[in-house]
Amino acid sequence: MxxxxxxxILGGTFDPIHIGHLRPxxxxxxxxxxxxxxxxxxxxxxxxxxxxxSSEQRLAMVALAAAENPGFVVDERELDRDRPSYTIDTLIxxxxxxxxxxxxxxxxxxxxxxxxxxxxxxxxxxxxxxxxSTRPGWQPDYPAEVADLLARHQTQDSEDLHRHRHxxxxxxxxxxxxxxxxxxxxxxxxxxDPRYLLPAPVADYIRLHGLYRPTRGQ
Length: 218
Prior knowledge:
Layout lengths: L6 E6 L6 H14 L4 E5 L13 H13 L4 E3 L12 H11 L5 E6 H5 L15 E6 L9 H10 L6 H4 L5 E5 L7 H9 L10 H10 L9
Parallel strand pairs: 1-2, 1-4, 2-3, 4-5, 5-6
Helix pairs in contact: 2-8
């Protein structure tokens, strides 16, 4: 079977979406020649507290961010579920929907290090490749299970992600972006200017709707 160019999948709470999400995804799209990057906002994140903003508000911000970036689209499937958003469920569905397209799940190194805590994590590579954003020159201390996974599945050849639909791990050396949504919410709550930390239309949306203000518990 001739495979189509791979697509990227970036899931997250996106509360709010910011450059720490977007910049690594842009670099992955360029480095791997991804046909598109799908932004998949969670409905009920299994590993953290409930989002500050509603699903509708977070979806609106993600849509604004996608519109600013060529090749980025929004996938709403997890918002339609009434149960926790497990990555494995989304990857199984995409693997079935796209029989001729490799799927690359984009994640940070912190997520890779914590992978053994994920629901059915051993099955992820049965349905996708893992593309991990790393800091150049940083050698993390991998847990034994993750080290074993890398030994069996890591590739240095990005073309493997084009030749196969799933099963490989590729470590992407990205420009470091030290920004978390928690830190950004604190900045917004203090009334500071978020310019250049998130797309301008997202900043405008936050301001227009009065999101992340101290009066709402920040």
